[in-house]
Each structure stands twice: as C-alpha cells, then as structure tokens.
Amino acid sequence: MTLSNLRVVALQQSFIGIAAMGTAVLIISGNIDLSIGSIFGLCAVAAAMLAREFAAPIAILAAVVLGGLLGWFNGLLVWRIKISPIIVTLGSMAVLRGVVLLATGGFGVRGVPKEFKSFCQIELVGVAMPVFILISLALVAHLMLSQTTLGRHLYAIGGSRDTSQAVGIQVRRIVLGTFALNGLIVGLAGVLAASRLGSANAEIGVGYELNIITSVILGGVAFSGGEGNVLGVMLAVALLGIIDSGMVALGVDPHWTDIFKGGALILAVVLDQLTIEQQQRRRTRLAMKERE
Amino acid sequence: MQNQQTALVRLVDITKYFGGVRALHSVSLELYAGEITCLVGDNGAGKTTLVKILNGLHQPDLGEVWLGNTLVRHNSPQKSRQLGVETVHQHLSLCDNLGAAANVTLGQEPTRFRLGPLGFIGFRQSQSIARQRINDVGIELSDLDVPVRTLSGGQRQAIAIARATVHGHRLIMFDEPTAALGIAQTRATLELVRRVADQGMAVILISHNLDDIFAVADRIVALRLGEVSLDETLGSTNREKVVACMSGLSFTKEANSD
User: Please, which pLDDT band fits residue B202 given cuts at 50, 70 and 90?
Assistant: First the structure.
C-alpha cells in the first residue's frame, strides 16, 4: 500500500472515525444512540441546504449545533423513558431519517455554492481537513478519558450508574452532556462528508450506525460500558478502512464487505464475552480460597 | 462517660410519613464518637428511612437533624456528605471496572490542575490517599489499579469502607455489610467496622444477625413500627429483650415486666 493510497483510506475513514470518537465516549458511559446514522444524514443535508442561503461557515456551524441538540434530545428521552436506549433511539433513527427524506424529497440538495465544498479541501499541516479534525479529536478524547475527573466519572457511570450516583457524581448532567457531545461530533462528521461531496442526498449516512458502532466495539469498547480507550477505536477504524480498500484492490466482490464487517463485530463481542467469563471464574476461585 | 461528650449526631423527634403510611414516629437518637450503634428492627420498621434521613435522601416531616452544632435544614446527599456523613451500601458500593485507588477516591478525585471544566487527576496523590485509607482499615493490596472485580469479597468490602472514610469524618452507616459474607469474612468486616469507630467517628450498623450485633455493638437501638422500642448499651440488655422489642412479642416474663 502506497502513501497516496493511505491518504485516500484516511480521508474515506475520517468521517466514520470522527463519529466513532463521540460514540465511543457514549458507549463507555453505558449508553447507546442508534440514530447516529440519521443524525449524520440530517446534519449533512441541513448544512448543504443552509449553505444555499448563508455563508458556508454559518451553515456548517448551525448544522453542527443541530446535531448537538438532536443528541441532547435523545439523551433526554433515554433518561426519562426507563426502557433500553436501543429501543428509544431506534425510534429517533426512523424519525430523523424521515425528516431527511421529507426535506430533500428523496433527492440530492441542488445548487450548493462552491465555497461549501472548499471547506473540506483546506489542508492543515499537510493533511486534509477531516483527517486533521479526526486526529485532534482523538487526542482530546484520549486526554479527557484517561486524565480527567470527567473521564474517570464516565467510566464509573459505565461501570455502575447507581454507585456513581451514590458517591455524588452528577450522573444526569454527564449522561445528557455525553449524548449532546455525541450528536455534535456525529453532526460534524456528517457536515464534513457533505462538504467533501459538495452536497448531500437523502441516502447519506444510511447504515453508518453499523460502521460506527462496529469500529467502537471492535476497538475494544465494551458494549455494556466502562471499558475501552481511544487508541483501540482508532486502530479499528484504520483496520476497517484497510479491509475496505484492500478488498477493492484484490478485486473481491464488494458485496462481501458487510459480511466481513458484521463478522468482525461478532468476533469482537465473542472475545469480549470470553474474557468476562474468564474473569468470573478467577473471582470464583479467589472467593473459594478465601472461604477455606 | 459518653453522655458527657457532645453528640456527633442528634435526631430530635423525627417523624416521617409516606402518603398515609407512618414510617417514623417521634424518633430521637444521639450518636457519639467511637461508638457503634446497632440499628435493628423487623422489615418495614423504619431502619432504611432513618438512614435515608441521615444521608439526606429523605426529609423528615417533623423534627430536627443536628450534625454537630449544625441544625440541618433542607438536607441533601451533597450537604450531608459535606458534613461528614457517609453510607456503605450492601450492593451499590463499588465500580467493578475501576481499580481500588479510583474507587476509594471516586467523586472526590484530587486534581493536579484544571483546564476550564476539566480537572486533571493527580494520580500519585490519588494512589497515596487510597493506600493510606486501605491500610487504615487493615488490608494489604499490592496493586491499586487492577479492576476490583478481580478482587475477593473481603478486599472489596475493605475498599468500600476505605472510601467511606475518605470524607466521612462524622458518621458512617453500614447497611447490612455482612449479609452476603461467610464466617471468616464476617469477622473481618466487623473488625473493620470497629476500626472505623476507633478512628473517632460515630457508626451505625444495620444488621439482622444478632451474633454480629452482640459481637460488635456498644449500643443497640431497636425500631418497631417506626418508633424506638429499645435504646440501651450492650451491657444492660440481652438477646431476649432485643428480640422482644423488635417483634413486639414477649418471649420471657422478664422482657414483659421491663
């Protein structure tokens, strides 16, 4: 694989990678938002439509803020409705995709000015804008998770929400904030993807929840929360990108892609389960020893 | 002797209703430094309500809660924690995915510096606080970063108690700490409870096990139907009396005539 190949893969995967940063933090805190593909799409479409009326920076900013609001609203629903966040956000996934279809009439957004596209073409220190944002976000997320009290509390909430509440952590504030942050970051990813294409269509982001969540779980974040780190997620994002382009390079039927990705996800979860079971056995042994 | 000191915690005529149900009626209680008060009572007697009033989760409808010289109005979990009240719960005490040091300092992490809303954890300080607290309750742990889910029940119990002592300087309440433990672990836990009291704190221990209670209590308080039915030092009471006051049934003539 050559350097220029690598740059192409990096750019292609940067949108999923950016979104995965937000979702990784959310899953570490023991939550999930399945509507990320729809938020991605809605923010992409919103940015393109707004760019027809306003200057590109305003359109981009407004669409990103919209993503944050959508995420926050999902968080409110999940907090208030005491059933699995999977079900609640499955609902918002459908609703938001419906909004995208209504807004676009099922077609692409036409007549987006050129300057909207140029935002994504800016290069910073020799890398494309989305790749630069991905790397910066990964650094910030890594520092936040591993060094700060907020990061510690996110792991704690993912480990045991009740314990966190009992020791006085502001669980509600942190969980709602995490949902909002996830929406914001996923929205940013969608906006960047639209900017790269110069526009957006009704199908943008469809199925991305699978790609994003696969990257996060494959990267070692426990779906039950409380475990995982940014480095693992970044490696998974890179791996999935290389599988994608590698299969194209090898001339494999592209229809195999989903089978590989889904298989990778199942494999990751199985390995995770086996580790947990092993730890359980270890603990049983210890407890038995102590009782003797 | 203890009556000459001022009480660390004083409840005066606490009454609490839940809808039409009377949970506590005119309960008064004084707790002293270094004293282990065992709270006993049948299910629904009001033990849990009393604990929740002390740690700020419930407000009494009538009566006063004094923490030292402070009359606590509009109590909240944050406020009671600030005033040095901590609870060790039977189940929701630890985050299994975090290490011992993280668990002991959870919610009270020392920070090196702050950057806007983000506080950067002082890991070394956190380790030394945790190490000291864990040693104080008499347990040796070599690695404070390994997830506590891999530790034994006794070690986990010690970590939960160590955490309570980080900010609990007035009152520590133990909610059935020995309910799920074997004989050796129960004895070790009761020793931990004694060690906490010896550090100069008031201790409430809720237990259903009379053996535990008579092994460790300085004072026994029985609740029955929301009222205090017994409040005596260990020396001046016996099992029959305690059981009689808990259940309202008299097993001996002695208990009856008391």
Answer: very high
